[in-house]
Amino acid sequence: MSDAFRRRAVLVLPFAWLALFFLVPFLIVLKISLAETAIGVPPYTPLLDRGDGGWSLHTTLANYQFLFSDSLYLRAYLNAIKFAGVSTLVCLLLGYPMAYGIVRAPRAWRGLLLLLVILPFWTSFLIRVYAWIGLLKGNGVINNLLLATGLIHEPLALLNNAFAVYLGIVYSYLPFMVLPLYAQLEKLDPALLEAAADLGCRPWQAFGRVTLPLSLPGIAAGALLVFIPAVGEFVIPDLLGGPDTLMIGKVLWDEFFTNRDWPVASAVAVAMLVLLLVPMGFARRLLRDETA
Amino acid sequence: MILAPTALSSPETDARGTVSPRAAASAIQPYVRLEHVVKRYAPGGPAAVDDVSLDIARGEFFALLGPSGCGKTTLLRLVAGFERPDEGRILLDGADMAGVPPYTRPVNMMFQSYALFPHMTVAQNVAFGLRQDGLRRREIAPRVAAMLDLVKLGRLAGRKPHQLSGGERQRVALARALVKEPKLVLLDEPLAALDRKLREETRFELVRIQRRIGITFLLVTHDQEEAMSMASRIAVMSQGKIVQLGTPPEIYETPANRFVADFIGTVNFFTGHVAGTDGPLLHVFCPDAGAVFTVEHEPLAAGADVAIALRPEKIALEAPPAEAGRNRLVGRIAAIAYRGEASSYEIELATGRTLRATLPNTRRRAPPFAVGQSVGLTFEPGACVVFRP
Asked: How far is B164 from chain A (nearest CA, A)?
């Protein structure tokens, strides 16, 4: 009885936290997305209006219809999904061997290697993205180096294009892929690989039949941690991207701060959240398989 | 060959003409051969396996027995191919295993932790090796089914390992190691993770299965009871070397040295010197027992130092003590450890030396002896084992 109570009491804090800082703000955004824009402070119509016949509810789905009427939004969503998806894949292809290597490294090295993965977090994210501008720009470090060695004769276009955005996202989010993969692979009992070898698996076959399926929860967790923030990413496409790298995060920013159209901006945000439920559902299934 | 139930029905030979373990032990023809195998984990360091030579017959149930760190597991891993010997050769059915990786060796291992694949069902675990060999689904299914029947797990084929009890997991691991019909099955402490009752039942089960399918078993264990009750022959290992090789009774009743006598079972040691000889008998004066022991042994020079090993169950107790005579000691019961089927008695001699005697509890009521009671101890001359230092 008291045990059950205590178990529930432990959950109060995280639930209260989620309710206060996630659910309430989300409901506010949802409310704004159902309003109309208005000139004033705040710049939208109230949900409840006091008219002649008492209180009346004011909601409209016009903002959502607007998202479909202008192809800009759809393109921005698809672009964001493309950038986030490709970056997640690249992070996985780079991060898996890194995590695997760290797990297989001598025990004394592992701490240091993990530290190196986390080390970039010691510098502000914004500063690191700015640093890439210095590296990638026309007379930046990389181009100057290549020009000086005579490998190229004209500066390469490394900045303000899709390449720079991919680079920025992969660079920024790689640790979020490596760490859950490391945690997952570290749990793998080496005896399982010996058992696979004993039963006739060459090393790469053992990887395919044992290591890879058993690391799926880590892959799912890492992919979520990269994909979800990458979809809404604003800073990286804004600083490193060009005109062809329109992402939904940038559109959201523009609606809020340039157009001051809060209802449409809120609708963009809500639609993005709904969109992200799809990959989360997939990942949940993978994560649940581990215990099933 | 598919392990159809009909092929399994004969206990003495299977379809390939595999000889039963009993027949094999009597006429040893090497099937697994280890020649001067040495393994060092660090170059120039101590040898984990030190010049081990060993022959195992086809169909035999062979046990490597020793304390932890004696090199028995390393030896098993060498045979499995997970480690490479620094010196020596390992031959399996005449073929040198040097350079043969684990995935092509005709050897399967049952791991101490069982190492079942957690993402696969029982049936998928057992089928793993067959699928890896590229067998068709319709060939695999009957073999997996027959093997699961053999270990009595048919009804659990669809479960995942974490849904099984320890004993069931152990049987899945066994089935997985047997299903490919390897030339040799390696068992690394197969019963260590089971509770006592299940362990005893499983011993009989393992022997039954091994006889039925006729595959050669190589068992590694630190549990002497396990080795003695299952194996046809035992190699006792210590510090990387085989210190004695023989059948379970040979190992128990004629240990080659003090280490073996001490490691296998319980033993009372006495040291003394030869006082005289009398035909096949030797009289040894043991100061710590304050008595002369008469033991069966070939003649030795008077005054030679010897050690005598006397097992607790070879001692008879009587109360009150009779007149002192040949191989008669008198002592006082200091403690009794009641074990149900038998009791162990700690007996203190007049010299202060204590020794242990074990007697079966043949009667239900009225314990035969009490603490503090004065008792006489007797034993046959043939009960003692003599070691020369």
From this structure: 13
